[in-house]
Design goal:
Radius of gyration: 23 Å
CATH class of the largest domain: Mainly Beta
Largest sheet: 8 strands, antiparallel, barrel
Strand content: 35-45%
Shape: elongated
Distance between the termini: 89 Å
CATH topology of the largest domain: Lipocalin
Number of strands: 14
Order of helices and strands: HEEHEEEEHEEEEEEEHEH
Structural class: alpha+beta
């Protein structure tokens, strides 16, 4: 009995020491000027997306600034995030903010810290970044009586789904890669040639403008898409792939597509 009691005292003492080493929660200052955000995977791979649109960057920074308090160094170590946002002011690194299943992680003041996060908080931040838990990005093209959905995975694979009123169909799959803002797609289907598109960030939206005839939809120039958004940034033009969040992708690809009524005006 005495041995068990002594063992319990040792465990309590070690736990107290570990908690003591954790230190008080940290609070960080606001990020201030951030011009771009790189979104990277858990292995520190090349960015799956670079966010430069001012509106999107400001939304991401606002979320991070709203979580400035409560950061700790757990005695068991800092958990590794699945997706990380790296903030830059030009070429100056301002810090990072990562996300895991139920936690946030940050690199500030020359060190790493973490804090618990709800599933709603995690989902909201990933939606701001435009990725899911694995770093996959999603785009949607509305063509009035249906829609196409493009999923770009960080492992270099992609899928294209066609959603019509009668159901959802797998339209295409293959490999993709990026060079700057240019995306290249190589379909798995024999005989189908590769095609390219330019990813453009404009007025709070990210869209793909296709560069050759082999693409999945009508080729519309960047200038024409921008003119449409200048006229009404909330009304997205048809036949253009715009980035959507993972929540919208999951919800919409589980439903058949309702018919649109085309006005005669």
């Amino acid at each position: 009995m005495r041995i068990r009691f002594l063992a319990l005292l040792v465990v309590i003492s070690m736990t107290a020491c570990r908690i003591g080493k954790q230190g008080p929660p940290r609070e960080f200052p606001v990020l201030n000027q951030v011009t771009s955000v790189n979104v990277v995977g858990h292995d520190g791979s090349k960015p799956s997306v670079k966010v430069t649109d001012r509106q999107k960057v400001s939304q991401i920074v606002a979320f991070i600034d709203s979580h400035r308090t409560g950061w700790i160094k757990p005695w068991y170590g800092i958990p590794v995030p699945t997706v990380t946002a790296e903030m830059f002011d030009g070429t100056e690194f301002k810090g990072s903010f990562g996300v895991g299943n139920d936690f946030f992680e940050t690199q500030r003041a020359g060190s790493f810290f973490s804090q618990r996060a709800s599933s709603g908080e995690v989902r909201h931040f990933l939606d701001l970044l435009g990725v899911d838990e694995e770093g996959t990005r999603y785009f949607k093209e509305d063509h009035l009586t249906g829609a196409d959905y493009l999923a770009l995975r960080p492992d270099g694979s992609y899928t294209l789904k066609d959603r019509e009123h009668v159901g959802l169909f797998a339209a295409e799959s293959g490999r993709w890669n990026s060079s700057g803002t240019v995306l290249t797609f190589e379909p798995d289907k024999p005989g189908k040639v590769p095609y390219r598109g330019e990813e453009v960030a404009y007025r709070g939206h990210s869209f793909i403008s296709w560069q050759n005839e082999e693409n999945p939809t009508v080729a519309i120039s960047v200038e024409d898409i921008k003119k449409h958004l200048d006229a009404n940034a909330e009304s997205l033009p048809s036949y253009v792939f715009f980035q959507i969040d993972a929540t919208a992708y999951q919800q919409e690809t589980e439903q058949t597509y309702p018919f649109h009524t085309i006005s005669s005006r």
